[in-house]
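#random but structural
TW: two for the price of one
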Amino acid sequence: MLNEIYSACEAKMQGSVEHMQRDFKTLRTGKVLISVLDNVKIDYYGTPTPLDQIGSVIATDATTIVVNPWEKNLLPDVESAIFAANIGVNPNNDGDVIKLFFPPMTVEQRQDSAKKMRGMGENAKVSLRNDRKQANDSIKKLEKDKEITTDESKSAQDQIQKTTDKFSSQIDSILKDKEQEILKV
């Protein structure tokens, strides 16, 4: 019973860390990544569809992304979706492809990205604390139902806290590395 609670809690916490890392990919760093367009979706025959599923999305150099839809009639839709996503650049439609030219990041933009990243890290830690609370509540319920002893309950809650601390320090480490990457000019 307790092992199931441990493994479920650890899986949820690992999921929180992975979610935070996916969120980080939407942040802009010094080099432009196509993942900055991950949250941009266009209406493709009534279905919200990611850009990479309706055409090719390529980073041609450190500051340029080219979106080449397979169907040229989608160019205006893609252009308006990118514009509405507010990613910090205006799309340039040349009638064949859409080019996004990202200017070099200013110190202010880097600090803003770092601030957003710390917020994402804090959200991940809140998720960890919620996972810990759920696991501890399950343990306390087992103790209340007399399925485990008080000592086992205390030991199990200590184990959950150690798991929480492990993932929290992992988040801190990832945040520190990512912040250095973002702030490096």
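TW: number two ↓
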Amino acid sequence: MAGSYVGKSSGSAIKGHDPFALFTFPFQGLDGETGDPIGLFSRKAFKDYQAIFNQPVDSARLVNNGSALPRVFGSLNNIFSWKDLTMIISLQYRFRYSVLKSVINYSQMYSANWSHPDFSQRWQQPGDEKKTDIPSMPYPADGSRDQFYSLTDINVFKGDNIRLQQIRLEYNLSLRRVTRNTVKKALLYTSAENLGFVWRANSEKLDPDVQYGRNAYPMPIRLGGGVKLDF
């Protein structure tokens, strides 16, 4: 079944493709009368979502969005010193990967009262399909419809980013004369971590590590400091 291979980054590899490839269903827009998301089945526009999921992988028109894991990653540390003062700036980078973002799910909204930032942008009347890709809100909700929309290529974005991971300030203070050599020196330091992005590829300014909606909580900034004594 095609649905078993879509939205996965591992464990459901398709022969001849990267095992970490991110596959999605092609999004064909919204129905102008109902606001339903439209897919493809046998090369035709289709809204039978279970039939789309159950297509044979070989005949399904899946979209390969590239690797779901960063192919290039690492960190850079820059050290600046002046007399007894040192500043360390750490950058973290990850390139060449794609992310499937978390989207609105009406089934969860009804059952667990989970909201989503996309709710205000949903299709509400004919003509809205020309200005939004967010499906209408049906009642009762259709779980297959929600799942299909969440696994379409319209919801994929480039995860490439550069983060300002840490800034650390250190000051070396000589204490030989003050403590009569009991304490030779002290290192005073303070640091801040998770300071945000220097750059990110996606135009929506999404964080690839945050699933927007019920878990839309980015990593908080962490502040610290201390004293290291050298006896």
